[in-house]
Amino acid sequence: MPTGISIRECRLIFAFQADERDPMVDTPDQPTSDPAKMRFFSVPQLRIASGLILFTFAVTHFINHSLGLVSVDAMQATRDVRVWITQSTLGTALLISAAVVHFVLGIAKFMGTRTWRLRWRDIIQLTFGLLIPIFLIRHVLGTRGIQEMFGVTADYDYALWAMWPNEAQSQAILMALVWVHGCIGIHHWLIVRPWYRRTLWLWNGLSVAIPALAYAGYVAAGRLSTLQSSYANPFSAEQYGTFVSTLQTMNTVYYAILAGALGIWLLLLLSQRVSRGVVVSYANGPTVRAPRGLSVLDISRINRIPHASVCGGRARCSTCRIRVVDGLEALPPPSESESQVLKRVAAPANVRLACQLRPTANLSISTLLPGNIDASRGVAIDQYHWGVEREATILFCDLRGFTKMSEGKLSYDVVFLLNQFLGRMAEAIQDSDGYVDKFMGDGIMAIFGMESSVQDSARSAIKAARAMGGVLDGLNQSLRDELPAPLQIGIGLNTGPVVLGRIGAGHRTGAAARITALGETVNTASRLEGLTKQLDVQIVVSNETLKASGLPAGESMARRNVDVRGLSQPVAVYCVKRAMGLPSSD
Description:
single chain; alpha+beta; Alpha-Beta Plaits; five-stranded mixed sheet
């Protein structure tokens, strides 16, 4: 039966909000309390935006390479279109800005790391990111650089002459470094989005196919160029000397920056070791001492304390959040990034994000989510374990007068009749892409839209209701000799926000393994079903459902406003005498 729990209360019950609107710090429509900050991007936003620009450039570059499997002319024709954008004044400025911003923020993030104990995925992304410039400097200087310095057109004829076969190995390493680094970043960014997890098979396939085809195209074109090309060396000895000198200078500068960053990072780690540090006490867990400057999530990882973190500690979800039991007054205030995430999940004042909170004094905490939730589990994360908000359509169906009908019958006959009714109705629901939530005596509750759009959910529910009307007619025909009177049903349909989750999901067996829906939308659907008897109709459909479906109201559908218990305002509904009076989407 409906629980009477509101969406607001459900958000407090279900901690992990994994809906289509990602609770990420880079969501542009999130309000901020500081107007000055609204005019600028946050650091996470800049890192994501710059990374996306560079990754988009890499993807188009790789696809261009893959056309070498067709011909060098196809590669060149596509390059002409691509460089028209990337080598324009705006495109060049955008790429240079993105590269500088991403590099600077990457170095800053590296220097901000206060622990050696990183996950393998973070280690790979960091290492590959630091290695990319070692190979990229030569590649960029040897293509766009010589074009700007000496006026040599760096088309594919030149590139294949210059890079095949002597640079084939370096190109393979560079492509692997760029691709893996970018894919890990994209994965961390999108992992909290349900549509991404549902289609992860597609992205996994593309992540392998694109670089494989790119390098195959480069190899095929390179081999062909050795047979057909008559490209002449465009450099003089002086120009080549200038190129080598410039390359050495740029490499030296990068190594100096890398060494400086590494040295500063080691000094910061050393200073933490000798500092007094802070004491963090975990409720029902250990008490540990840690250097100042570490986040609570880092402290948990260093001490091998299980701590949930779906987004990998990037403030893009709320799964790492903690409740501060003692020491709240001495903590630094939340940053803008942290505040946005906490506001989205309506967290109280004593709840903070462990990945963002860097304690400056002793504190006692309790984690709010199980520590086995981790981004590395990818699609294995059960979003329904902690709840997910959706726009869905709820269907309630009840068999009218069953108690009176079962009087005087044997228990076996009653069970047989119920199984016939509920089984056939469940089949009609499932055939219409619905999910049977539960059976309630002689009634049934179903959810539509768990994995589909709002329009599809409403249309599927209406289709199911029509089919259930046909099933009822068939049952009355086949069971006419067993029934004192024809079976009658009442169906209520309503569309709106619900929270889907596994109640009692800690057991994950029996009823706890089923997914249920909570919220006012569910309550209203149940009460609309109850009104069918009072209104002497078979189906009551809310206006929200019909509106969401995009279907026109049929002539046999009477619109009226009805009072629904628990709601202060009347609800607009359509009353349908028989299910066949519902509109059809076929």
